[in-house]
Design a protein that fits this description.
The longest helix is centred in the C-terminal third of the chain and has 22 residues. Among the domains are: 133 residues, no CATH class; 48 residues. Helix 3 packs across helix 4, helix 3 packs across helix 5 and helix 4 packs antiparallel against helix 5. Strands 5-4-7 form a three-stranded antiparallel beta sheet. 44% of the residues lie in helices and 9% in strands. The protein has eleven helices and seven strands.
């Protein structure tokens, strides 16, 4: 009987020793195992979110730090848009590829935002591939919204109609057999080869010298009263404005020629620059360029939505 009890005790000790040496299986999904305060084994996953700067949150202009990735995204969707509608046996007409460009800029940029990758905020979305290195037990989320869709749409129109030209862009598509991110490196220079240049360190502000506590001698009061004489104020009348500037200010109605002269002067051109004869296509391109300049001026001068609403509601 005693031998039987001894054998049972030895078997129990062996089972306990094997249970202690047994290791928990590794999780292939990146979860990290830890023991909580109650002694239970739990799994945790650390999620990293980007920190939004003021430039990231407000305005419709794409921040300069994302201009390379935004150009790559634009080329990806322009290439896709042309390939969907391009005839197999002929060159597209001008109005055909212009419509394809407009459609791509209008409806292609859903699902974009910024993500924290390798410690830096990075534009993320369809067509953008980044080398991603996440620590075990961590993940990253993307913060997007309508603001990024509008910024990419505006960047798309700017590349086509202001910086490169729709005809030149279509010729590039025909020559290379498609539009790739190489355009952003060689033609637009929005991207550069090699590692990114680190920002310059901020110089430490010089320490302020302690001000000497010197007591100024008090001035003796003069017994004689000083007579104050009023001098006539200088005339503050502003110089007369030019005819173009005077006619463009205020809220009173003006005709189209006066408006075009005013816009030309604001854009640094001669007053008659926008009144010269042009073809119908040239007028369309000029109108789009003027609209882009007006939009950027209003976006820079009016920071909130209420100001923009008042400006367009006049």
């Amino acid at each position: 009987m005693s031998l039987r009890l001894l054998a049972l005790l030895l078997l129990a000790l062996l089972c306990l020793g094997g249970a202690k040496k047994k290791k928990a299986p590794k999780d292939e999904a990146g979860w990290k195992e830890k023991t909580n305060e109650q002694g239970k084994v739990v799994q945790e996953l650390k999620i990293e979110a980007p920190s939004m700067t003021e430039e990231d949150q407000y305005g419709y202009k794409m921040p300069d730090r994302y201009k390379c990735d935004s150009c790559r995204a634009v080329m990806f969707h322009l290439d896709e848009g042309l390939k969907k509608v391009h005839p197999k046996s002929r060159r597209m007409k001008q109005w055909e590829y212009t419509d394809a460009f407009d459609e791509a800029c209008r409806s292609s940029f859903e699902g974009y935002g910024i993500k924290l990758l390798n410690g830096e905020n990075t534009l993320s979305g369809p067509g953008l591939v980044h080398k991603e290195s996440l620590a075990p037990g961590s993940g990253a989320i993307q913060m997007g919204g309508e603001t990024w869709t509008k910024r990419l749409s505006e960047a798309c129109r700017s590349i086509i109609y202001e910086r490169m030209g729709e005809d030149e862009l279509y010729d590039k598509y025909r020559e290379d057999g498609g539009l790739t991110e190489a355009v952003c490196f060689s033609d637009l220079r929005d991207c550069s080869e090699g590692p990114a240049v680190p920002p310059k360190p901020k110089e430490a502000a010089p320490a302020e010298k302690p001000k000497a506590d010197k007591k100024k001698p008090k001035k003796e009061k003069k017994e004689d009263k000083i007579k104050i004489t009023k001098e006539p104020k200088a005339s503050t009348a502003s110089p007369p404005k030019s005819s173009v500037e005077a006619s463009s200010g205020g809220d009173r109605p003006i005709d189209s020629q006066t408006f075009l002269r005013s816009m030309a002067v604001r854009h640094g051109l001669t007053a008659e620059e926008y009144l010269t004869a042009r073809t119908e296509r040239e007028w369309e391109k000029l109108t789009i360029a003027m609209a882009g300049r007006i939009f950027n001026r209003l976006a820079d001068s009016e920071p909130n939505e209420s100001c923009r609403a008042n400006a367009f509601g006049r």
